[in-house]
Amino acid sequence: MIELFQTTDFEYRESDQSLVIWGDCITSMNKMEEKSVDLIFADPPFNLGKDFGNKSDTWTDRKQYLAWCYEWIDSCFRVLKDNGTFYLMNSTQNIPYISVYLQEHYHIINDIVWTYDSSGVQSRKKYGSLYEPIIMASKTSKSKFTFNSQNILVEAKTGAKRGLIDYRKNPPQPYHTQKVPGNVWKFARVRYKMEEYENHPSQKPESLLERIIKASSNIGDIVLDPFGGSFSTSAVAVKLGRRAISMDINKEYYKIGLRRTGITTEYEGCELKKDKSRKTKNTSKKDHIHNNNQLSLPLCKSC
Q1: 221 and 245 in contact (C-beta within 8 Å)?
Q2: Rg of the chain's alpha carbons, rounded to an integer?
Q3: If exposure means fewest CB atoms within 10 Å of the residue's CB, which of 29, 68, 164, 278 is most exposed?
Q4: 287-295 long-range CB contacts below 8 Å, 24 or more apart?
Q5: Side-chain half-sphere CA neighbours of 24 within 13 A
Q6: Phi-psi region of 188 (alpha: psi -120 to 50; beta: other; left: phi over 0)
Q7: Phi, psi of 6, rounded to the nearest 5 degrees
Q8: What sign does the dihedral 216-219-222-226 (CA atoms) show?
Q9: pLDDT tens, position by position, 171-214
Q10: Helix/strand/coil (H, E, C) string of 35-76?
Q11: Lowest mean pLDDT among 48-62, 86-100, 134-148, 213-227
Q12: In what helix (H) or strand (E) does residue 112 lie, and over which residues does it extend?
């Protein structure tokens, strides 16, 4: 897939199904051929000060942050095919500004809410936040985007659980036991000790990404994630028979991508192993984790 890039002055590795790049997403995407990608899922830093290891989540001015968002959004749409689909996540504080920008320059298909439960106290001064917004968009209102509704059916509780009959039909028929999901999605957050967990502060669940990839792409299509992070998007895309392109400016996350997408099991002489330690700033938790996860240490200091 590296042939989709005009220049390759960045570190990368690839297999038949996956291309992982160590580098800035805007710089990398600007070197890609236009209209070369079928589906994009973007989960950028939200400007909330999370620890991504490179101070990439702190802007002192919201206008600067949003200007950066608009720049990489434009880069995404440049490489997206005319009938491709773009999914974007951000915080509840930023999404209204981004939504207006997308409405003015592109086309919004759906506003989606990913909701989840939390065992901890969210807030003592206001209602806690238990959802994250997702925007599904295309280049124009005339784009013939992919939507494989039959591949993402969920249980229709009225028909499946209660076995009701719809007497409005002639002859009367049982209610459907399956349906296309609505725009409110309930998936559990990725938590420490879950099998899919990676040492990353903002990992998205594979089940959420599976729905997006199944619905909005076909086998053999190219799926781009400009903010690789834990590289769940690319890992799921490869499992589903798609081809994945992903990038990250953090070298540790780049190595996660190499491992999770099956490109290689070693890097610079070190075995690539999953780091099961928890990404947290809570000192007491860190002490507890250190005492109970001795096996998570890397094989050498450079790994």
Answers
A1: no
A2: 21
A3: 164
A4: none
A5: 10
A6: beta
A7: -75, -35
A8: positive
A9: 888 878 899 999 999 999 998 888 999 988 889 999 999 999 99
A10: CCEEEEEECCCCCCCCCCCCCCCCCCCHHHHHHHHHHHHHHH
A11: 48-62
A12: strand 107-115
pLDDT at 160: 59
> Whole-prediction pTM value?
0.88
> Mind listing the pLDDT tens digit for each residue in 218-264?
999 999 999 999 999 999 999 999 999 999 999 999 999 999 999 99
What's the token pair of residue 53?
């290891």
Q: How far is CA 17 from the centre of its chain?
A: 18
User: Quick one: which of 62, 125, 72 has its CA closest to 94?
Assistant: 62
Do residues 218 and 146 make contact, with C-beta atoms less than 8 angstroms apart? Answer: yes
Q: What is the largest CA-CA distance in the chain?
A: 71
- State the Cα–Cα distance between residues 204 and 89, nearest whole angstrom: 10
Assess whether pLDDT exceeds 70 at residue 288.
no
User: For residue 152, what are its two tokens?
Assistant: 């993402």
Reported as a pLDDT band with limits 50, 70 and 90, residue 129 is confident
Tokens of 235: 């890992």
Provide CB contacts within 8 A for 164, sequence distance 6+: 158, 174, 175
* Residues paired with residue 38 on neighbouring β-strands, in sequence order: none
Spatial strand order in the sheet of 107-115: 11-14, 18-22, 243-248, 222-225, 37-42, 80-89, 131-138, 107-115, 184-186
CA distance 41 to 34: 17
Polymer length of the chain: 303
